[in-house]
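Write out the 3D structure for:
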Amino acid sequence: MRILVTIAHYFSAEVNGRHASTKEARREDRRRAVEELICAYRGQFGTSTTLDVGTRSFQQGVGSDDDVDIVAVTTGEKHLLTSEFCFDLRVKVAKLELENPRMLGFSAHQILAQRANQYDLFVFSEDDLRINDPSFFSKLAWFNQTYGQKRVLFPNRIEWNRKAPTLKTYIDGDLKPQIADQMNAFVPDEDALYGAPLGRQTVFRRARNPHSGFFALTRDQLNYWMRRPHWMDRDVSFISPLESAATLGIAKTFSIYKAYGRSAGFLEIEHLDSAFSSLKLPVVPPL
């Protein structure tokens, strides 16, 4: 499967910056995050080697079934990717000129559209989300084949934090009930889907918090979205331009599901931060 990954990446230190992408103190954290997520794509879906302990040699392995091209979408020179890193990891950098860098995600949509017939799968990602599962795209393919092209599976965002109530935290829950209802009202569908991928009973629930900072669409899905009247309307009414670019257009076009409950680990993506899991909040028992 040929896969195009676009990463919306921005960093520019500002006085009294509000976001991690604008805080000088977070520069190295942000550099490490974007490099780690790119390395994960190359590691999970690229060529591997095997250390043969008997012959004390590295044996060249075969590549993945997936061929991944990566484009980092940035604003001018306001990014943290070096030319050496991009050459080594085969990353192309699209340096755009934008008045408002918070609209960068919509520019990534345009890059997907320009190559709409060149790939099998089209990925959008924020610049601090890492895939740790070599079966990630196979699971997405299973979902699409099982439940149809009008439904999209989003990964559950997780954070690892030793100081959180547990090591692993899922970022979920209703943002506000009326917002969740409004998002799901765009495309009415079933509240839950049930299946048995890999022989395990799995539940997929209509997402109450649809945002993952990530989406992956097949070629048919992308072309279907591009034919909708709201394509590239640059609507930023879902929280902010950042969240809207990752989520709102998909919600207007498809029904969004996430693996739920005991099944939540079926499809995950790691947020390379602890901004949410470090919040001082009460711990309540499960429902």
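The chain has a mean pLDDT of 93.
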